[in-house]
Amino acid sequence: MSAADRLATAEAMIAAYNAQDADKYVTYMTDDACEAGYRGAVVREGKEGTRAGLNAMFADFPENRVEIVGRHAFPDYVVLHERVTRGVKKGDSEPTPGFDVIAVYSFEGEKVSRVEFIR
Protein backbone atom coordinates (compact mmCIF):
# COMPACT_ATOMS: atom_id res chain seq x y z
CA MET A 1 0.00 0.00 0.00
CA SER A 2 1.46 3.35 -1.01
CA ALA A 3 1.67 6.43 1.20
CA ALA A 4 -1.00 8.03 -1.01
CA ASP A 5 -3.30 5.02 -0.42
CA ARG A 6 -2.75 5.30 3.33
CA LEU A 7 -3.59 9.01 3.18
CA ALA A 8 -6.78 8.19 1.25
CA THR A 9 -7.71 5.68 3.98
CA ALA A 10 -7.24 8.25 6.76
CA GLU A 11 -9.26 10.79 4.78
CA ALA A 12 -12.03 8.21 4.28
CA MET A 13 -12.08 7.65 8.04
CA ILE A 14 -12.57 11.39 8.54
CA ALA A 15 -15.39 11.41 5.98
CA ALA A 16 -17.11 8.58 7.90
CA TYR A 17 -16.50 10.43 11.18
CA ASN A 18 -18.05 13.60 9.77
CA ALA A 19 -21.06 11.59 8.60
CA GLN A 20 -21.21 10.22 12.17
CA ASP A 21 -21.04 6.72 10.70
CA ALA A 22 -19.10 4.73 13.29
CA ASP A 23 -19.83 1.47 11.42
CA LYS A 24 -18.09 2.77 8.29
CA TYR A 25 -15.26 4.34 10.31
CA VAL A 26 -14.25 1.04 11.91
CA THR A 27 -14.17 -0.81 8.56
CA TYR A 28 -10.81 0.88 7.97
CA MET A 29 -9.37 -0.54 11.22
CA THR A 30 -7.84 -3.85 12.25
CA ASP A 31 -9.96 -5.89 14.67
CA ASP A 32 -7.67 -5.03 17.59
CA ALA A 33 -7.07 -1.39 16.62
CA CYS A 34 -7.25 1.32 19.22
CA GLU A 35 -7.39 5.06 19.67
CA ALA A 36 -5.16 6.58 22.32
CA GLY A 37 -3.53 9.68 23.66
CA TYR A 38 -0.04 10.18 22.27
CA ARG A 39 2.24 7.63 23.94
CA GLY A 40 -0.47 7.24 26.54
CA ALA A 41 -3.59 5.52 27.65
CA VAL A 42 -5.93 3.80 25.21
CA VAL A 43 -9.30 5.58 25.09
CA ARG A 44 -11.08 3.24 22.65
CA GLU A 45 -9.99 -0.38 22.32
CA GLY A 46 -10.77 -2.66 19.37
CA LYS A 47 -13.30 -2.11 16.62
CA GLU A 48 -16.21 -2.61 18.98
CA GLY A 49 -14.82 -0.26 21.63
CA THR A 50 -14.16 2.36 18.97
CA ARG A 51 -17.65 1.95 17.49
CA ALA A 52 -19.30 2.23 20.92
CA GLY A 53 -17.18 5.23 21.94
CA LEU A 54 -17.85 7.09 18.71
CA ASN A 55 -21.58 6.39 18.83
CA ALA A 56 -21.74 7.72 22.41
CA MET A 57 -19.82 10.85 21.41
CA PHE A 58 -21.98 11.40 18.32
CA ALA A 59 -25.10 11.15 20.52
CA ASP A 60 -23.66 13.82 22.86
CA PHE A 61 -22.34 16.05 20.06
CA PRO A 62 -24.63 15.74 17.01
CA GLU A 63 -22.86 18.68 15.31
CA ASN A 64 -19.33 17.29 15.87
CA ARG A 65 -17.11 17.62 12.77
CA VAL A 66 -13.44 17.48 11.80
CA GLU A 67 -11.70 19.64 9.22
CA ILE A 68 -8.34 18.42 7.94
CA VAL A 69 -6.01 21.43 8.18
CA GLY A 70 -2.81 19.66 7.16
CA ARG A 71 -1.72 16.20 6.05
CA HIS A 72 1.47 14.21 5.66
CA ALA A 73 1.79 10.64 4.43
CA PHE A 74 4.73 8.36 5.21
CA PRO A 75 5.31 4.70 4.32
CA ASP A 76 3.71 3.34 7.52
CA TYR A 77 1.98 6.40 8.99
CA VAL A 78 -0.33 9.26 8.16
CA VAL A 79 -0.25 12.45 10.24
CA LEU A 80 -3.24 14.78 10.08
CA HIS A 81 -3.68 18.19 11.68
CA GLU A 82 -7.37 18.09 12.55
CA ARG A 83 -9.61 20.95 13.68
CA VAL A 84 -12.53 19.62 15.71
CA THR A 85 -15.74 21.59 16.17
CA ARG A 86 -18.17 20.20 18.71
CA GLY A 87 -21.23 22.41 18.51
CA VAL A 88 -23.73 22.31 21.34
CA LYS A 89 -23.58 19.23 23.55
CA LYS A 90 -26.91 17.47 23.97
CA GLY A 91 -28.63 19.04 26.97
CA ASP A 92 -26.47 22.19 26.97
CA SER A 93 -27.36 25.62 25.64
CA GLU A 94 -23.88 26.94 24.77
CA PRO A 95 -21.47 25.57 22.17
CA THR A 96 -18.58 23.46 23.44
CA PRO A 97 -15.23 24.92 22.42
CA GLY A 98 -13.47 23.22 19.53
CA PHE A 99 -9.82 22.25 19.47
CA ASP A 100 -6.94 21.31 17.21
CA VAL A 101 -5.29 17.92 17.39
CA ILE A 102 -2.50 16.09 15.60
CA ALA A 103 -3.61 12.55 14.79
CA VAL A 104 -1.06 9.85 13.93
CA TYR A 105 -2.57 6.92 12.02
CA SER A 106 -0.43 3.74 12.19
CA PHE A 107 -1.03 0.95 9.70
CA GLU A 108 -0.75 -2.83 9.62
CA GLY A 109 -1.15 -3.84 5.99
CA GLU A 110 -4.07 -1.92 4.53
CA LYS A 111 -5.82 -1.22 7.85
CA VAL A 112 -5.29 1.30 10.62
CA SER A 113 -4.01 -0.39 13.77
CA ARG A 114 -3.73 2.64 16.06
CA VAL A 115 -4.66 6.32 16.07
CA GLU A 116 -2.82 8.51 18.58
CA PHE A 117 -3.99 12.02 19.36
CA ILE A 118 -1.63 14.83 20.36
CA ARG A 119 -3.59 17.65 21.92
From TrEMBL:
Residues 11-114 form the SnoaL-like domain. It holds the Pfam family SnoaL_2. SUPFAM superfamilies: NTF2-like. Transmembrane segments: none annotated. InterPro entries: NTF2-like_dom_sf, SnoaL-like. Gene3D superfamilies: 3.10.450.50. This is SnoaL-like domain-containing protein. It comes from Sphingobium jiangsuense. The lineage of its organism: Bacteria, Pseudomonadati, Pseudomonadota, Alphaproteobacteria, Sphingomonadales.
